[in-house]
Amino acid sequence: MIYSPRVCSNYVPVTETDRLLHFFGVTRDPSQPSISVTEVWPTGFAPFIRLAADGSGNKVIDSGHFGLLPTFAKEIAFGRKTYNARSETVHQKPSFREAWAKGRRCIIPVEVLYEQNYESGRAERWAVHQDGVPMGVAGIYHPWTDAEGRTRGTFAMLTVNADGHPVYSRFHAPGEEKRMVVILDPHDFDRWLTCTPQEAKAYFRQWPGELKTYPRLRSPGRL
């Protein structure tokens, strides 16, 4: 996969403490640095939600680079190729299969997604959101160790085919496959994090809920 700003590569993360608690049931560890970015692109730093490593089953907020870095990656720039993981092949692609097999699933808290719309004959940046309610995007993560021995969090968004979807079938360049990220129902957050890799495949589906979309120049509020 080649880095392109046209496919699920740019979004506004949820970073406000009260919204993370209210909508996702998580609080940030005070020892962690706060994140105040307004937009994220591949290799950018943003929060994601995973299970605590202590086996308690609790959800915790972690931070990492948008673009999963497998063990064999040599530099952060590798993440420009791995910010999306296709649900159809996540279990077999070298960059993703270790994270998938080990159950390293996460939830990426998103206020707004940006996509490219070509209906006017040229690329226009459009916003996608849920009218003030953040989205929990299904993802996978991997703790990557850099050349200096520092461990960095990294993550990718999972995608599915979007043919026929009322919103996402409008995006991406003519001739390209229509894709969309996997958006989770809030009732499924805990189950997504705790189920087996085989059971997790049940969540690989187009989002059936309402999504609002319009050109970026019309701000939906939290942008």
Beta-strand content bin: 25-35%
Can you say what the CATH homologous superfamily is?
Answer: SOS response associated peptidase-like
What is the average per-residue confidence, as pLDDT, rounded to a whole number? 91
Q: Calculate the terminal CA-CA distance, rounded to whole Å.
A: 28 Å
Main sheet overview: 11 strands, mixed
Structural class: mainly beta
Count of helix runs: 4
Oligomer: single chain
**Radius of gyration from the alpha-carbon trace, in angstroms:** 16 Å
Name of the level-1 CATH class:
Alpha Beta
- What is the number of independent domains? 1
What best-fitting shape do the alpha-carbon axes yield? Answer: globular
Going by CATH, the architecture would be Alpha-Beta Complex
Say how many strands there are.
11
